[in-house]
Amino acid sequence: MNIINTPVIDFHSHVGRMGNYNIIDDMDWYIKNLDAAGVDKSFVSYIFDGKASNCNDKVYDFVQKNPKRFGGFAHVTPHYMEEAIPELDRAFNKLDMKALKIYPPFYPRPVNHESWYPIFEWCNENKIPVKSHTQYGPGEHKNDDNGRPILFVDLAQRFPDINWILAHAGNMEEGRIESVKAAIECPNIYLETCSSYGDHGAIEYFVNELGDDRILYGSDLPLIDARFGVGRIVTAKISEHSKRKILGLNALKVLNLNEAEVSI
Questions:
Q1: Looking at residue 196, what is its pLDDT?
Q2: Cis (ω within 30 of 0) for the bond into 222?
Q3: Do the domain assignments include residue 22?
Q4: H or E stretch including 84?
Q5: Residue 34's closest CA among 64, 61, 72, 68?
Q6: Which residues lie across from 99 on neighbouring strands?
Q7: Nearest 5 degrees, angle CA 34-CA 39-CA 45?
Q8: What does the alpha-carbon distance between residue 124 and residue 51 come to, in Å, rounded to a whole number?
Q9: Counting beta carbons within 10 angstroms of the beta carbon of residue 13, is it exposed (0 to 12), middle (13 to 18) or buried (19 or more)?
Q10: How far is it, in rounded angstroms, from Cα 97 to Cα 74?
Q11: How far apart are CA 101 and CA 247, in angstroms?
């Protein structure tokens, strides 16, 4: 429990061992960081292997070492659609994954291109939340436009039984503005807070424009210390009730969990 007495759920962390991304798989290191940040449970994914089953096996093996503190998000890609659907079935029905993580910059077509549809049709039928990397703004970021926030309006309307989580909430200011517009238009779009562009007042902007029901705390651990994301929320000029919802209560609803499953 953190200082405002609420379950804290990290909706965005990574596992595996990728030194060039500073991603490690040292369980003790993760636990120390989560404890320091007051995070009860962290949901992790791995997206850096071309074979989706390898990604999901890494996540499953990591979670099994400490299932009280960690949960898994699956990953598939439309690069290998013949693998994607069977792997979705395995990940959610055998490995107990709780959401799907996708990364549009790895694919050469926009996230709302029809080549993605079989994946989203499966998730829509099975009511699986989908979290996607989003980023939009100035600078040279290869293929970032493929996952720009505004594209999710089309997807949210086409696949209404999916809760769409915009990881980073667009990241830069232009992306944050698009993310809020998309979420206002579509009630099944959520914003997730981890960002390398943590502008002052961003949390307040989300709550003031959208309300507090569809905002989720994420850290981007181990790329970003979990305390940074928690601190942005705890010190934001929003109500204590809004802080509790963003830090964990909203995630409980999205992932269909109860408080006993995440509290330590």
A1: 80
A2: yes
A3: yes
A4: helix 81-93
A5: 68
A6: 73
A7: 75
A8: 23
A9: buried
A10: 6
A11: 20
Give residue for tokens 């309307």: 157
Residue 31's CB: how many other CB atoms inside 10 A?
15
- Taking the C-alpha atoms of residue 250 and residue 257, their distance in angstroms, rounded to an integer, is 10
Assigned domain for 217 exists: yes
- Tokens at residue 140, please? 């040279």
Q: In this structure, is residue 239 part of a structural domain? A: yes
**Number of domains comprising the chain:** 1
Q: In the numeric block, which tokens belong to residue 160?
A: 């209404």
Q: Which residues contact 158 (CB under 8 A, 6 or more apart)?
A: 112, 120
Run of H or E residues at 74:
strand 70-75
Q: Is the dihedral of CA 187, 252, 63, 226 positive or negative?
A: positive
**Measured between alpha carbons, how far is 221 from 207 in angstroms, rounded to an integer?**
23
Q: How far apart are CA 225 and CA 203, in angstroms?
A: 18
Please provide the size of the chain in residues: 264
Strands 189-192 and 164-167: parallel
Half-sphere exposure of 174 (CA within 13 A, CB side): 8
Spans in the chain with pLDDT lower than 70: 1-4, 21-22, 140-143, 198
**Three-state DSSP class for 26?**
coil
Query: What is the residue type of 31?
Result: I
CATH number of the domain encompassing residue 67: 3.20.20.140
Q: Does residue 2 lie in a domain region?
A: no
Domain extent, residue 81, equals: 9-257
